[in-house]
Amino acid sequence: MQVAVDISLYPLADEFLAPITDVIQRLNTHGSLEIRTNPMSTQIRGDYTEVMNALRQEIRTTFEAVPKAVFAIRILNNPMVE
User: Fold this and answer.
1) pLDDT tens sequence across 49-76
2) How many structural domains compose the chain?
3) Which string of b and e fits 11-45 if b means at least 16 CB within 10 Å?
């Protein structure tokens, strides 16, 4: 099953750009996923299991590195192909 995810990170700290850049760079290392970034969020497309495994890994890494952070995530199943 294919999914599309829209994800935004809100680090609750004065230095907020570095954690955002870091998580985007890490997401881009997952070669089987399609990643697109815009000023407000990052879109991830791919197989459900691969997307969820990448999110689980990268969210945990961020939470371990950033004392207070919020991820806003929307997930769409069976996205339309562009």
Assistant:
1) 999 999 999 999 999 999 999 999 999 9
2) 1
3) beeeeeeebbebbeeebeebeebebeeeeebbbbb
Q: What is the CATH number of the domain that holds 22?
A: 3.30.70.930
Contacts (Cβ under 8 Å, ≥6 apart) of 30: 46, 50, 54
Residue 6 lies in domain: 2-77
Whether residue 82 is contained in a domain is answered as: no
pLDDT in tens, 16-53: 999 999 999 999 999 999 999 999 999 999 999 999 99
